[in-house]
Amino acid sequence: MLAGGTRIAVVMVGLPARGKTYISYKVSRYLAWMGVNCRVFNVGEYRRKLVGAQLDHSFFDPDNKVAIDQRLKCAVMALGDMFRWFEDVHNGVAIYDATNSTRARRKMIHDECLKHGVEVMFCESWCDDNDLIDMNIREVKRTSPDYKGVQDIQRVMDDFHSRIDHYSEVYEPLGGDGTRPLAKGSYTLPPTNPTLDEYDEKAVSYVRKINVGAKMVINRITSYLESRIIYFMMNIHIATRSVFFSRHGESMYNLDQRLGGDPSLSPNGWKYAEALPGLVSKLLGDQPLTIWTSTLKRTAETAGGLPYKKMQWKALDELDAGLCDGLTYEDVEERYPEEYAMRDENKFEFRYRGGESYRDVVLRLEPVIMELERQQNIMIISHQAVLRCIYAYFLDIGPEELPYLKIPLHTVMKLTWTAYGCDIQMYKIDIDAVDTHRAKPKAAKRGGTIKGSSGTGAHSEAPSRPLSSKTSASGLNAARNAGFAPAKPQGATTVKPESLVKSAFATAGTSAQTNGDASSNAAAAKVPLPTPPPVQPESVAAQSQPVDAGAVRSAFQTQQQQQQQPSEIQGVPSKLSVTGGHDHSTCENGAHGAHGAHVWPSQISPGITRENSPVHASSMTVTLGDHAHGTNHSFPGRSDPRQGSPVYLSAGDFASSFEMHRLQSGDGDMSAQADASGLSAMTKSLSLDSGAAAAGASTAESAPSSRQSASTAGHRQPLLAKQKIDELHVAGHGNVDIVETTPTITLRYSSDLPPDVKKQTVAMKNELVGIEDDDDSASDRSSTRSPPSAAATAVVDTQADPSK
Ligand SMILES: O=P(O)(O)OC[C@H]1O[C@@](CO)(OP(=O)(O)O)[C@@H](O)[C@@H]1O
């Protein structure tokens, strides 16, 4: 995933209790799961190791000169270890987790990173919601090693607030206050060795997550991976919620131990389908639930009796066994002995001829994971291999163990994640099923070529996890304890009584995983978990009484007939990420997008086309960098499971800054972003506040019908739907009105754009809407010209008061 030699330091910024450590470890786990070398360097650990844990707030007083030296020493040590780690792994992402609350500190880190050939992306978590802050302190800090043994929560709260106050005295938010538009001409690239005065944070890459994502500010993001990280950060939230997982009921192929295929359920599988609704309703009560299944019959049949909204994801289909589809393991060994042996050698990497590897499945599941991070109360009914990959993400299990996780049939697993951990519970329904698990052969590879190790690292004196370790033992143990280990005897009705906590921070090693800046100290501790649901073994047993499988089957068939076709699937999650990079755009699907502006359509569910998709784009990442040429890409439907709607965006030269606000409302946001990305072609700073959630008059609305005409105008089509842009500033271009029009977009710039930029802009707009370039006429249009209102889909008024 990373180009050779790519080294990125994500440098956290923020006052204590802003969730920096939570974000750090979530990002780290996500990247490791995606195969990226990743490690968290938590300065707090160094401080606790070098100076001690239980220091009161005076240690953080900016007038405490001795402490300041000690804190700096810790920061430098962590930085040194980070650079040594980069030398070991050659490429990867390090997350440098501390408050980094002053420009001087950030400049020091920035300078050092540049010296070591490491790209820097600052990531600030900014929050002024006192309830959230107090909740964070209360829930998290009381379990911190910094307050170990202190019973009096109020004392902890008071001390911690004092600590925050000390930091607040010197705290400087990233890039100024992040709300002022740049003054014209104020944008400067950093000199090679800037003084502190010259150090201009508007020139560095950063993202600000404001009030837990209510608003994101993204500045000068230049690489594909950075954009993925930001996109992930936009999606994570801290609400406590549960996800339920189950394999389909036993299938006819399972009975024969055959791979893949699209078989129906066995008689016992139908019984499981019958019993499932009772168990789920016991576990969930009246709460809403959405069921995600694969597109294969056995999962749809299993979900048939569940009275909830359902969605099918192609990405949840079982690992494709290619040539071996429909064979038994014995057949495979006999017919393809070499392949059979190779799979045993390294099951994660082995790709069936004409099929997939586990790594392939992980990659195609990324949109599912992203959506799971955003959603509440989801039940996934899928397959052995797919569920292994998903569990591995949540439990931070490495690629050697992942393909051997035990995912028993006829068992519901409930995973509840709180701010800092996961709780797994297993509910086995007492209906017989075969065991399809194959144990890991002795010859199986250990270590191997698989990349990805999340965790915290320290070569110096701070606690460390061996660099070679690819698997989180604690995650694995949690998984084993939770039932991934060999199954209980058949027929046992099991409700696992134990709640297993998998702290997000357990990935980092055995020591305290806390934040030296004390912003998230309680991360180290296992948080108390919610009381397990009131489901007793008896109640589960009640679900497993003999059932009329025939009735379930016919109910399912009726339901199948009534069910909406894919084109009518409701609530399809669609998200989109666009990056704009360097000199040109070559990337078609974003999968290898190291360069250029490109669209990542993978989050748009397969089978959902532009025409039929509700396209509830609730978030999106747009990143633009220097010299990104305006480019639009088409994504014609392909057999690739990642195929999605064609979406066209445009990224342009000199674009440097975006603000996005409340991206929650639906397709209007996506189109607004699409438009904004085009606008950025000639802006140095763009502030966009869009979305139905924002009150107030919209300045523009599109005519959906014009989409159709755009689509006939060429094979490329912008995803312009009913659109609201509540506020849009383009700063830095003076007050000259220029109206540019195209059949689908009208833009009015308050700008004194140079002619060549105008010309280029119009060309880009034209390309965006898929029409022939008529740049001369367009660039000559006068400011008094009216937009062709019937065809216009968006009017972007850049004359809005930039101070708003
Ligand atoms: O990777 P391995 O361990 O072979 O497990 C994947 C296999 O699991 C199976 C069952 O053996 O899943 P499923 O029950 O969904 O049909 C096969 O279809 C699939 O090929």
Q: Please, could you describe this protein's structure?
A:
The chain has 804 residues and is an alpha/beta fold. The chain is 31% helix and 16% strand. The protein has 21 helices and 23 strands. The strands form 5 sheets. Strands 7, 8, 9, 10, 11, 12, 13 and 14 form an 8-stranded mixed beta sheet that branches. It has a 7-stranded mixed beta sheet with strand order 2-3-1-4-5-6-18, sandwiched between helices. The chain has a 3-stranded mixed beta sheet with strand order 16-15-17, sandwiched between helices. The protein binds 2,6-di-O-phosphono-beta-D-fructofuranose (FDP). The site of 2,6-di-O-phosphono-beta-D-fructofuranose has 14 residues, from helix 8 and helix 14.
Task: Describe the secondary structure blueprint for this structure.
Elements: E1 7-13, H1 20-33, E2 38-42, H2 43-50, H3 65-89, E3 92-97, H4 103-115, E4 119-126, H5 130-141, H6 153-170, E5 206-210, E6 215-219, H7 224-235, E7 241-247, H8 252-256, H9 267-284, E8 290-293, H10 297-303, E9 309-312, H11 329-335, H12 337-345, H13 358-374, E10 378-382, H14 384-395, E11 411-418, E12 421-428, H15 473-484, E13 494-495, E14 500-503, H16 537-543, H17 549-562, E15 573-579, E16 598-600, E17 616-623, E18 657-661, H18 667-679, E19 685-690, H19 704-713, E20 725-731, E21 737-741, E22 746-750, H20 755-769, H21 775-779, E23 795-797
Helix pairs in contact: 2-3, 5-6, 9-17, 11-12, 13-14
The chain binds 2,6-di-O-phosphono-beta-D-fructofuranose.
Biased composition (Polar residues): 466-475, 511-521, 602-622
Domain 6-phosphofructo-2-kinase: 6-175, 195-238
Region (Disordered): 440-475, 511-649, 766-804
